[in-house]
Amino acid sequence: MSAAPSDPLLDRLVGFGRYLRTQGLDVGTGRILSFCRAAALLDAFDAEQLRAAARVTLVSRHEDFDLLDRAFDRYFTAAPAAETLPAEAPLPDPSLPGGPQLPSAGAGMDVAARWSGQDGESDATEGETAIRIVASEADILRAKDFAELTADERRLLSRLIARLASAVPLRPSRRYRVASSGPRFDFRRTLRRSFRTEGEPFVRTWKERGVRQRPLVLILDVSGSMAPYGRPLVEFAHATARAGRRVEVFCFGTRLTRITRALRRRDPSEALTAVAVAVEDWEGGTRIGQSLKELLDRWSTHTALRGSVVILCSDGLERGDPEVLAKQMERLSRLAHRLIWVNPLKGSPRYEPLARGMAASLPFVDVFLPGHNLESLEVLARTVAAA
Fold first, then answer.
1. pTM for this structure?
2. pLDDT in tens, 132-172
3. Is 321 exposed, middle or buried (CB count within 10 Å of its CB: 0-12, 13-18, 19+)?
4. Closest CA to 290 of 338, 323, 335
């Protein structure tokens, strides 16, 4: 969700925790608070994401998962015909689509409304003030500039970024695959199936183009001017590398360093440590054009770069010749399927791309995005998935 929960939604989340108590689960205020905190930080209010958040926060024993899942289905969706709730807790409106729903104005008789407000005056306010504060803080954190984060906020941000990027760009494959319907009639498969029915083609099959992962290349500026943003961007690259196989990641300051292998480590802390060891010019000067030239000279014939989605993360404060940068950006734009420039300075409403490096690069950029906070990285993740 992009905003803090509204009161009806908050009541529904709190009510689910209370409802679990009636099902025999030991769910205290602290667990409800953790559940609402997790729900407030979900990127999208998706039923399976919410179920996973409930499993992580509301129960601690594996044997409780089945009971929680059944309660989740009853509480947030219409129950199966063979399974009913006690009379004092009727089912939600079955006309609502599947998945978690916001209660309507007249939903006071559904399960969520009953279990969020019928446990007495003291229970009705249990933890809700703290939950609202947490939800508000979560929303503030998502919009807060990386340069302004405290140490605790950075740790929380790292966990959020680790689960942020889950989609990689796709492209049509040359090969066709079997489909229930499609643009091509599969004559050979239809003929083979007709042998089962004495030569009559009762079952006709079709073909459609398959999809493959499109190569994704991240080029991260780790120079001194990018110091507040370097770590979050490397964490984003780690999450992205974990999501797809055809991902290459490079860092540059005054020289180019490939860090793809370091980011293959499962643990984010180990990956960041490996990156810190590999990159020798961390928080040094900036030579964007020369670094891109090195990348293109070595990788321009590589399949990882041709037809790829390229994400270049930099503030554009080039210390080298801007004409060299413009020439390399033109080369890169011809090779790439889509070229995305992520600039943390663009998060400022008064920012104008007047720096020589940025001005020289923009004519070759397909998408120009900010990269100064968690919200901007969420936008970047969606842009990459749709590229």
1. 0.64
2. 555 566 677 888 999 999 888 888 888 888 877 566 777 77
3. middle
4. 323
